[in-house]
Amino acid sequence: MLVAMSVSSYLVRVVLGAWRAQEMRGEDWGAGLEAMGTKKKFWCQADDGRRYLFKYTRPGTGEDWSEKVAAAFGAALQVTCATVELATYEDHRGTLTQSFTDAERGEVLVHGNELLGRNDLEYLPLVHYGASQHTVDTVLRVLDEASVDPPLHREAVAGLTTAANWFLGYLLLDVLIGNTDRHHENWGIVEHDGPDGTYRSRQLFPFFSNRVMPASRPEFTAYVRSLGLDPMAADSVEILEAQRRRSRLTSSTTKTAREVSAGAAPVPVRDSQAGP
What we know:
Phosphorylase Kinase, domain 1, 6-stranded mixed sheet, 3-stranded antiparallel sheet, globular, disordered N terminus, HipA-like C-terminal domain-containing protein
């Protein structure tokens, strides 16, 4: 349900205990727990029949509004992102992220580390910190070799015709919002069998776990300066406004993400934390 409580212009959704109980009764959804990552979270089924992941916000981090704002940036730039709502559960702040997989179609989320491990026998999928093999070059190669298609629920954007194109667009969003947590468990693809069971379809999964850079990050000062602001004086609203101006400037360019990155050397994708 929606209540008369808001942060800026966003409503805050209240997660009911019955939603979590319904998830825990599901035969296919286990106990509603989410094993990936290190942050506390659980799956639930809302009154609208949809499945959501509730992620607790750690006190003093602003992780909830940060993820909501990042999703809004992505939508403005036509990047296919997870749908995020501000939420509370038993007086705990957090976010609700709607599931993109359809169990009736047999859809399964395959995280990036699993996909890379399957298609590159030398790749180490269980490394949680400092995964030096997780480079842009490796990801783009595997997306092509595994015949992964662009996101299914995407808006048509000229020049973005492959999963690799879209993944580079995802990384550009990370640059714009200062997200340093794009490790190999924070992206993935959706797999499901074809109608006759003779082939397996793969689409790039919408981007999730997107957050504006927190002040606790060591690179925060340099990032705020790159926005033309004073790190010691700028508040959150000023930083968000500067990021929005930058996103508008970036969205006006006609170059595709592939053109921007052509000829670039492999760049490690930062993995500052282990979980989404």
